[in-house]
Inverse folding.
């Protein structure tokens, strides 16, 4: 499949995805390859000096702040359910609006920024999340909750594709590590949201959500600095004429690439549909089945999300070392024994099993994303937008459907059925080996 042509810039070129392979797979005609891809390469200083750690840490911190803001929405569900007299279906619809907005817009944002990168769109995205957070803190009707969810989703749609591109640009060739550092910030923010909600929002009420606007403001400042660095990198990269894009053909046929992308999306469906049962309904499950108080249920959710953060940071470097396909295979199918056992144990066992489930399952996304970037060289923004967007969409769809199911058959039955979703990890056997 040919990479995106037009006015793509150097950070999306095919040499970026193939550069690491030169050290391990001898190639003939390397001079020709260098000639066709040279102007599109990431600046040599980035490749030679290793990752731009300050930029990666700034991205990770901003991702933490961004997802901290976003995670407050599901963390508020128990309060919103009581205060607005909502059923599980209405709770699921809030999640669907938030994640559906992000899902639909992220691929379009990624495709556009492949052609015209927008360094300061990162800060704009955070600003939209701030607006959604402010509305959430004062919402007095269900429609206002949906509008706040849509604003937060829009902010996410703008933030994630371009931030993923900057992470790759700053990777110095260690793409898995860079994606893990970037994504672990988001997972840490998602984990902190319920914990802070338990100790700040639950005792003080919905209005205290406004205090988290300070986190969004800090994120805007960090992203302004990152955007300035990104703009400087772009300024040093010449544009590539449309006719030179023929060198960007990938190693697989178009049909095989499409089939492989479909498999990857199927694996993301398995991961995020199952994750939706935790992110949106784990607290309800603990409250309903074991009678734990709301604040303690939020702490147990933090335990699970903390394991997710740890798994994210491990997945990328392990993929760099042992191969993306192995990590993808193990990280989804490996959850199955734990997910099958979870509905049949007590409170201690449930909390204990949530740790390996989060740890193993979360290691999939960095490996899947880098694998897709290597599969589609030259379309870094599209890949980021498509896969982050699909992940958000599956999370939102899963939350909506599982909410309806919980209203009809009960929350415990939902966990009985979702336990089989990681079995879809068997699809990973059909992934081609790219290296």
């Amino acid at each position: 499949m040919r990479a995106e042509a037009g006015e793509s810039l150097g950070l999306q070129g095919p040499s970026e995805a193939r550069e690491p392979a030169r050290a391990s797979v001898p190639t003939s005609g390397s001079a020709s390859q260098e000639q066709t891809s040279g102007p599109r390469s990431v600046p040599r200083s980035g490749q030679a000096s290793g990752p731009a750690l300050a930029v990666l840490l700034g991205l990770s911190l901003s991702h933490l702040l961004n997802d901290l803001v976003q995670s407050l929405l599901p963390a508020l569900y128990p309060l919103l359910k009581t205060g607005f007299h909502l059923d599980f279906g209405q709770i699921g619809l809030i999640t669907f609006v938030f994640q559906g907005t992000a899902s639909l817009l992220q691929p379009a944002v990624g495709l556009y920024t492949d052609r015209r990168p927008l360094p300061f769109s990162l800060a704009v995205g955070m600003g939209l999340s701030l607006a959604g957070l402010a509305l959430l803190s004062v919402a007095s009707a269900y429609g206002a909750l949906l509008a706040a969810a849509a604003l937060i989703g829009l902010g996410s749609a703008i933030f994630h594709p371009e931030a993923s591109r900057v992470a790759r640009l700053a990777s110095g060739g260690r793409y898995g590590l860079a994606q893990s550092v970037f994504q672990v910030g988001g997972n840490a923010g998602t984990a902190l949201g319920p914990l802070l909600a338990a100790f700040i929002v639950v005792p003080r009420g919905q209005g205290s959500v406004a205090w988290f606007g300070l986190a969004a403001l800090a994120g805007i400042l960090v992203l302004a600095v990152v955007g300035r660095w990104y703009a400087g990198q772009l300024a040093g990269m010449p544009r590539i004429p449309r006719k030179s894009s023929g060198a960007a053909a990938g190693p697989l046929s178009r049909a095989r690439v499409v089939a492989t992308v479909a498999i990857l999306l199927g694996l993301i469906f398995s991961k995020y549909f199952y994750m939706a049962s935790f992110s949106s309904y784990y607290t309800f499950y603990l409250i309903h089945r074991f009678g734990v108080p709301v604040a303690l249920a939020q702490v147990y959710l933090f335990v699970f999300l903390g394991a997710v953060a740890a798994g994210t940071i491990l997945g990328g470097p392990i993929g760099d070392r042992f191969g993306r396909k192995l990590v993808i295979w193990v990280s989804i199918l490996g959850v199955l024994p734990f997910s099958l056992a979870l509905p049949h144990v007590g409170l201690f066992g449930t909390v204990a099993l949530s740790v390996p489930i989060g740890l193993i399952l979360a290691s999939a996304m960095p490996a899947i994303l880098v694998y897709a970037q290597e599969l589609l060289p030259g379309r870094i923004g599209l890949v980021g937008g498509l896969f982050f967007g699909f992940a958000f969409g599956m999370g939102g769809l899963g939350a909506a459907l599982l909410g309806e199911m919980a209203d009809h058959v009960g929350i415990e039955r939902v966990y009985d059925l979702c336990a089989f979703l990681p079995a879809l990890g068997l699809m990973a056997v059909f992934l081609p080996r790219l290296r």
Remarks:
- The chain has one domain: 51-235+254-430.
- The radius of gyration is 21 Å.
- The CA atoms of residues 222 and 238 lie 27 Å apart.
